[in-house]
Amino acid sequence: MDLATFSVQPVPAEYTNINFYTIYKPGTEQYGGLDWRAWIVGVEYVGGKPTLFALIHFQWEP
Description:
This protein has strands spanning 19-25, 37-46, 49-59. It is elongated. It contains no helices and three strands.
């Protein structure tokens, strides 16, 4: 799939056992919903305990 600025990429093998969670804040009506932001949190369990693996921030930019 390629939609000009978006394409699907295969997940690297080292990420296959990581649990990813998304924390999403929708945009406001003032900006037509475009001023959204999101965090992706990767959690790996080490010895049965959750460990932060990745923290990635996305947001709309004008």
